[in-house]
Write a structure and sequence with these properties.
about 1500 residues, alpha/beta, 6-stranded mixed β-sheet, elongated
């Protein structure tokens, strides 16, 4: 006060700095003259001077280019200068007055001087912002807002002054004040506008830029800049092009390179060599046994590997995260000020004497604080989400780059599935942590503050709430623990089911061929039943925990009020105590519930961080393993001196003491038995192996053709160009040389035809030739070729050798290292290396080695004698070590191994309308049907379908339960308001016991109602889930093969895993929330309208607005989510493709291009995620403003009608209104989640309408009959086409095959050899004509009746993950003795007997822990067990060496002598000993006769023999 006196002088009427009577206890409040002149005027000045140093530093660091002077800027400057002049003219006027002897207090001239100097600072900052390219300033906007509020206070006091004493007394000050107010208002308006975009900005100036950067400050904080996109989303369906490109600071290019730098710095050398031994237990590298469990794998780490990674993330994102935390803390301050205001408001209602403006003041202050709380909370969420997206980009980038440098040992330690999990599941856990982390320390602080406030209200009774928490905690803990056990069980079954489903879908062809669908679907349903059992128990417990959580608010209140009122009669429960306590208990509860979430998120994120660090710490390829030397001083292209190599440091060497020199331009063949180390030698040359000793030099560039063809999901042309420029003439030469021309002609879109995932829609031979063409097109100087001839037909192999690899081929001047099994090309190579058990046994030219008569001569001799017995030829044997691609053969055209007809089935049925005619050619070549994304709102019929699956009676019962429990809840609140209004006699209330008793009883009834209603919804969900899964499984199993070719396996797996997951748990959960919140909202409306009927006038328009916001948001948000889901899969596919082809990518030095593609895909995904995150903020901000509006009106109408409104009713109404924010927000969220997830129901039901194959069994047919005793097959005018819009693949075939006859089927690629078998097994139905087996038309039979009687041995051997016994006899029809006999006949008995578990030996997925030859033999054993009357062999011996081949042939001859055998041959010598040979040409029968006759006729067959060098 003394300071006030010194500043303001002791003029009478100045009343010092503050006067309560003048300001508060009056109906016409106003500040003292001194307070106005000092405190009010200086608040904006203080604000700007405090912000100035920080803001100026920020401006120095942030340069966005500069902004040209615009009209807005000029107007700001002009007004600013006028204001400065005005302030100083005020100062000079006062000084003049003082000089005239008029007494003036110091405040008179100090105040305008301070304001004037601050105005100069504001003008300076305005200019500084223009130079730094700031288009809209928050700091200055707030300054002008505060200045305007101060000016309004001065203005109103001047007006009052003028009304009381007349205007003339002090006209100079009156005029300057009015001028000042209008000018400040002008500045405020100008600062709400946006300036022009800056020049010379580093930001990419795309026309479709994110509007956030160039929007006003107000629009930024309320997210109104997003409204344009919301509006667009409502008018039409959104496409990716409608969304803004990723902002520069969020792009992969920026973030990943930054992350790499930081990670390398933090990743200390000591931890670099944590071998992959820690990473995988039980790993026997020799055979690669025992894939350890995924989590186990990624959790083991000796040191804390995750610390450097955490450090790296913190140094990148720490500052931004701390800024967001500041927002959250400020938001909490506002959160706790609201109960205080409510308390004051209820005091005002009770005190009839208080001036009525107090009520309005409290109402508006409550509204203002609530709005500020909203803004800060939403800013916090926005910052967290942006941070989450950046983290996701960084992690995906680091993981992707790691894949490209992983050593072979590391590749064994991590599978594709695990890596995809890292960038999907684990990243999500880290993103969740960012939002929840602050809860771990803020929630306890919130809880403590609540207790302090409650103590102030209720004294020691407040502590009883701790007792409630202590009672509920163990209860919830027990429920959660039990529930997590059920969830674990459920997850275990879910994983089992996913594994089995994956195996079934990958090898559906084999399952259909053998007629095993029923057995496998029953297996799946068995697992599913256990899964749902666990889910059901878990859901009941979930209902109990929810009921206990929701009733904790009531329990806490009940115990506190009961103790407070019953302990001491003089304790009166009035409205203020009761309803403020309730508001505090709500805050307490939300903090209490947030805590476990936060802790859980932290624990899970820790696990994910460990997994991520373990992966990033895996061993990398040693760049020194292979030195690429470009100097010309060395003559040889490849030199290895005393090289010893191993796959990983822990294993024994796979190549020992290798000395090898390959001269430039020579052709070196590498031969040896299966497993001699031929492929390992190529890997060593590529630098894929760990070099233990010796040195190795390779000159210039290399191209590599792996044995397992690696194909990208792209067009044929893109696969061959592999990032190089298109050179038409060279491209055509390469195509011709690799024999791809005829294939391209048959493809629907020629070279633009799309090849499916892992080359699913082309044959093995085509894959290998595309692979070879890719390498040849690169024009490298060294070619490493791993048995490229094994997968192609004999004459094609001859063609490729002559035109590509041989002395006159395209590569004749290049250095070529060729691993091969093709003996008859050896005389034409320059040198031969013969490997035995990882060492070079002999080296030299063909002639030299024969003369030496050593190991090579012996090897050759055994092969040649074997060939003579089998008929000589061009054997294309391959020891396909490694994986058979996991979709080996999903397409039925790949069923056997033809190409041409097959590729024509690539035509696609639907050309999307959105594509214009120019892309029609490319579209024609598309094979995979794309995931459909829905655009409009979900059709109501889908909801109907879901509710129907739940059952109508259950739905009605649920709604009734919800209504009852909400009615009880209303009664409880109303009872409390009556209790607080009970009159007080002698400082006590009457009927306290009754009030407590009824209040308690109502609460208990409500809790029970809550449990019942929640359980009803969740169990209904389980019922619906069961029905929908059954439908899906049956529909997919009954689909024909064509369906599986056109539907990528990913889509199907998605239906079975993600979509079913949504139906299992997400939809029921969100439905329960939606119903709960909806009824809650209705209750709140009822309360407000009962208390203050006039509030209905405000509630109705606000609800209409709410509905509008919700409508706009749901449409746009659902679209964004769908587009986002579709943009995720390409990232995962790209990762999986890169993982499989990393050796090829490295060999061709294409890492950079693949990294760019990965960056592009991640950015495209972020481009969609970002608007999705902002949409949530847009909605929350708008809804919370609406809710705050409802609170404002409830309070205003209560203040207006306080004369006839009891404090109890007012408290009841406002404390309920305060809950509305959360309710509205969560209601829309639940609704959106339902809308997004109900699509799963639609997708699962999508296959109801797809075509189905014929019935599996026909009742009445074959019953009691023994059919197929002879095996006679008759084709009558039989034609077949793969799909309605394609031409015939078989044309009018007429032929008869007698029982027990052995038939060879031959013909050029694409003649229709495989199609014959396809027709016989009815994988595709006849176009016309019929096939009769033993006189029965097969079209009249059930598919299983037919297929179980015919046995097929397909070209690609297929095994399922499971025991060996299960693989040999899935239907469990045979004894162990039978199985051992079959194994003995196929030379596998000794091998299986040596295995640790013999028949129970676990085969890994696709049987990867067996060699391809062994898998082929297992399939043969399976066929022997079935002993069918008709056997179809598809070149079943392509993957075994010649000796085994001969044993197999003799086994087949003896075991199937009573059966009809059809052999589909790719090598003529395979069919030489058949009874008759069928030659096909273009789908017609060209010849069908015995070998002698065919040779004598010199027709097509003779020509084929000539080409193979047999004639």
């Amino acid at each position: 006060m003394a300071a006030g006196g010194a500043l303001c002088g002791s003029r009478e009427g100045s009343a010092g700095l503050w006067n309560w009577n003048q300001t508060w206890y009056t109906n016409t409040p106003r500040f003292t003259w001194c307070f106005e002149r000092t405190v009010v005027a200086w608040i904006p000045c203080a604000y700007l001077w405090i912000c100035f140093p920080f803001y100026y530093l920020y401006l120095q660091h942030k340069t966005k280019g500069y902004i040209r002077m615009s009209h807005v800027f000029k107007a700001k400057m002009v007004l600013g200068f006028i204001l400065v002049i005005l302030c100083f003219s005020n100062v000079f006027f006062i000084l003049w007055e003082i000089s005239q002897g008029i007494p003036r207090a110091p405040a008179f001239f100090i105040s305008p001087a301070v304001v004037g100097i601050t105005m100069i600072l504001a003008v300076f900052l305005t200019q500084a912002e223009r130079m730094k390219g700031i288009q809209s300033s928050g700091i200055l906007l707030i300054y002008w807002l505060l200045s305007f509020m101060a000016a309004v206070v001065m203005f109103s006091s001047k007006v009052q002054h003028a009304l009381e004493r007349g205007f003339l007394e002090d006209h100079f000050h009156h005029v300057t004040t009015y001028l000042y107010v209008s000018l400040v208002l002008g500045e405020l308006v100008l600062f709400c506008l946006v300036d022009h975009p800056p020049f010379f900005s580093k930001a990419v100036n795309s026309p479709n830029q994110c509007p956030e950067a160039s929007t006003s400050f107000l629009s930024k904080i309320t997210y109104w800049w997003f409204s344009g996109l919301v509006w667009k989303g409502c008018q039409r369906s959104l496409k990716v092009d409608d969304l803004w490109p990723v902002r520069k600071e969020d792009s992969s290019e920026e973030i990943v390179s930054w992350a790499e730098r930081v990670w390398k710095k933090c990743h200390s050398r000591t931890q670099q060599k944590v071998g992959s031994a820690t990473f995988k237990k039980g790993q026997k590298s020799e055979t690669g046994i025992a894939e350890a469990e995924e989590t186990e794998v990624l959790l083991q780490s000796e040191h804390s590997q995750s610390r450097p990674l955490l450090k790296a993330f913190w140094s990148m994102f720490g500052t931004y995260f701390l800024l967001s935390t500041v927002c959250l803390v400020i938001c909490d301050v506002f959160l706790f000020s609201i109960p205080k205001l409510l308390s004051l408001f209820l005091e005002f209602i009770e005190d009839q004497e208080a001036p009525s403006w107090h009520g309005y003041f409290y109402a508006f202050t409550m509204f203002l604080l609530a709005c500020l709380q909203t803004l800060f909370e939403q800013r916090y969420m926005y910052m967290c989400l942006v941070l989450g997206l950046r983290l996701k980009t960084a992690v995906t980038g680091l993981v992707y780059r790691k894949i490209l440098v992983m050593s072979s040992a590391s590749r064994k330690a991590a599978t594709v599935g695990e890596i995809v999990n890292l960038v999907s599941v684990d990243v999500q856990k880290l993103m969740d942590l960012i939002i929840y982390f602050n809860g771990t320390w803020l929630a306890p602080i919130r809880i403590i503050i609540c207790f302090v406030f409650l103590w102030q209200l209720l004294g020691p009774s407040a502590l009883t709430s701790i007792a409630v928490f202590l009672f509920l905690l163990p209860l919830n803990f027990m429920i959660t623990k039990k529930r997590s056990q059920f969830q674990e069980t459920q997850m275990k079954h879910k994983d089992e089911r996913a594994k089995l489903t994956n195996a079934i879908l990958s090898d559906i062809k084999v399952i259909k061929l053998y007629g095993w669908e029923k057995t496998f679907t029953e297996k799946v349903l068995g697992i599913r039943k256990q899964e749902l059992q666990a889910l059901k128990r878990s859901q009941i417990l979930f209902s109990a925990s929810l009921a206990s959580f929701h009733s904790s608010t009531f329990l806490t209140a009940f115990v506190m009020f009961a103790v407070y009122t019953l302990v001491d009669n003089t304790h009166v429960l009035d409205a203020q105590k009761a309803f403020v306590s309730l508001t505090l208990i709500n805050i307490l509860n939300s903090a209490h519930s947030f805590l476990p979430f936060s802790i859980n998120a932290a624990v899970q994120a820790k696990v994910s961080l460990k997994r991520l660090a373990a992966f990033l710490n895996l061993e990398e390829l040693n760049p020194e393993s292979s030195s690429r030397n470009t100097s010309d001083c060395v003559q040889a292209s490849i030199t290895i001196r005393n090289g010893t190599f191993c796959w990983s440091k822990e294993t024994s060497p796979c190549l020992r003491r290798i000395d090898l020199t390959v001269p430039q331009g020579s052709l070196l063949a590498v031969v040896g038995q299966v497993g001699a180390g031929k492929s390992s030698l190529l890997s060593a040359l590529l630098g894929e192996l760990e070099k233990m000793d010796g040195c190795m030099i390779m000159k210039d560039t290399a191209a590599y053709v792996p044995q397992q063809a690696w194909i990208q999901n792209a067009s044929v042309e893109d696969n061959i160009l592999f990032g190089k420029e298109m050179n038409e003439t060279w491209f055509n030469r390469v195509i011709d040389a690799c024999a791809l021309q005829p294939d391209l002609e048959s493809f629907p879109a020629g070279r633009k035809s799309e090849i499916g995932e892992k080359g699913i829609n082309i044959s093995g031979g085509q894959k290998q030739r595309v692979n070879l063409a890719r390498a040849v097109y690169q024009k490298a100087s060294i070619y490493l070729l791993d048995d490229p001839l094994s997968a192609v037909d004999a004459h094609v192999g001859q063609h490729i050798f002559e035109h590509v690899l041989g002395p006159n081929g395209l590569l004749k001047d290049k250095t070529r290292v060729l691993v091969t099994h093709t003996i008859n090309i050896l005389p034409q190579v320059d040198n031969i290396v013969f490997l035995v058990d990882g060492t070079i046994s002999e080296i030299g030219s063909y002639q030299e080695l024969l003369q030496r008569n050593g190991a090579f001569a012996e090897f050759l001799h055994s092969h040649i004698t074997a060939e003579e017995q089998a008929g000589t030829g061009f054997p294309a044997l391959g020891d396909t070590k490694g994986t058979i691609t996991s979709r080996s053969g999903l397409s039925q055209r790949k069923l056997f191994s033809d190409n041409l007809v097959r590729s024509s089935a690539m035509g696609r049925e639907t050309i999307p309308a959105s594509q214009d005619s120019t892309t029609a050619a490319a579209t024609k070549g598309r094979l995979m049907k794309e995931e459909k994304t829905q655009h409009s709102r979900v059709n109501t019929s889908i909801y109907a379908a879901y509710l129907k699956a739940t059952g109508l009676p259950l739905c009605v019962y649920t709604i009734l339960l919800f209504t009852c429990q909400q009615a009880v809840s209303f009664s409880r609140g109303y009872w409390l308001s009556m209790w607080t209004d009970d009159p007080v006699h002698n400082r006590t209330q009457q009927h306290t016991e009754l009030r407590v008793g009824v209040f308690g009883a109502l609460g208990v009834i409500q809790a029970l109602g809550r449990f019942a209603s929640t359980a009803a919804v969740l169990l209904g969900g389980v019922l619906a889930s069961h029905k929908l899964f059954l439908q899906l499984l049956r529909n997919v199993a009954r689909s024909p093969m064509v369906f599986f070719e056109q539907t990528p396996i990913g889509n199907l797996l998605n239906r079975f895993s993600r979509e079913m997951d949504a139906i299992d748990s997400v939809i029921p959960d969100k439905l329960k929330s939606l119903l709960g919140f909806l009824f809650n909202l209705l209750e709140i409306y009822l309360v407000i309208i009962v208390a203050t009927p006039r509030a209905a006038m405000a509630i109705v328009p606000l609800t209409v607005l709410y509905a509008a916001f919700q409508h706009f948001y749901v449409i746009t948000s659902c679209q964004l989510r769908r587009i986002e889901a579709a943009s995720r899969s390409p990232i995962y596919s790209h990762i999986s493709e890169t993982f499989q082809g990393s050796s090829v990518i490295r060999a061709h030095k294409a890492q950079e291009r693949f990294i760019l593609k990965s960056n592009f895909l991640v950015d495209e995904n972020q481009r969609i995620c970002f608007p999705g995150a902002v949409a949530d903020r847009w909605l929350a901000t708008n809804l919370e403003f609406l809710s705050n509006g409802i609170v404002l009106f409830a309070a205003l109408f209560a203040a207006v009608g306080r004369t006839h409104l009891s404090p109890g009713t007012a408290g009841f109404s406002i404390s309920y209104a305060l809950q509305i924010t959360g309710v509205l927000n969560w209601m829309v969220r639940s609704w959106t989640e339902i809308e997004n997830n109900i699509v799963s129901v639609e997708r699962v039901r999508e296959y109801l309408r797809t075509p189905k194959e014929a019935p599996w069994t026909l009742n009445g047919k074959l019953q009691g009959q023994v059919w197929l005793t002879e095996g006679r097959i008759e084709f009558r005018n039989y034609s077949l086409r793969y799909r309605p819009n394609l031409e015939l693949a078989l044309k009018h075939v007429n032929l008869t095959i007698n029982g027990q006859e052995k038939i060879g089927i031959t013909g050029r690629t694409g003649a229709g050899k495989s199609t014959l078998a396809v027709g016989l097994l009815r994988l595709v139905e006849a176009a016309e004509g019929a096939i009769l087996i033993d006189g029965l038309d097969i079209a009249q039979l059930g598919l299983h009746d037919l297929r179980t009687k015919i046995t097929v041995i397909p070209q690609d051997p297929v095994l399922f993950s499971g025991s060996l016994r299960m693989n040999l006899d899935p239907l469990n029809q045979h004894t162990d003795a039978d199985i051992w006999t079959a194994l003995e006949l196929t030379q596998l008995k000794n091998f299986v007997a040596d295995l640790p578990d013999q028949l129970e030996y676990k085969c890994t997925d696709q049987g990867e822990n067996l060699s391809t030859g062994q898998k082929q033999l297992v399939c043969l054993a399976r066929a022997l067990l079935r002993k069918a009357k008709i056997l179809i062999l598809d070149e079943a011996t392509a993957a075994v060496d010649l000796e085994t081949d001969l044993q197999i042939q003799s086994t087949l001859r003896t075991q199937f002598k009573d059966s009809t055998v059809l052999t589909i041959a790719h090598r003529i010598n395979t069919v030489m000993d058949c009874d008759r040979i069928l030659v096909l040409e273009n789908g017609r029968v060209a010849e069908f006769d015995t070998l002698e006759h065919l040779i004598a006729q010199k027709g097509p067959f003779y020509r084929l023999m000539e080409e193979s060098g047999l004639a």
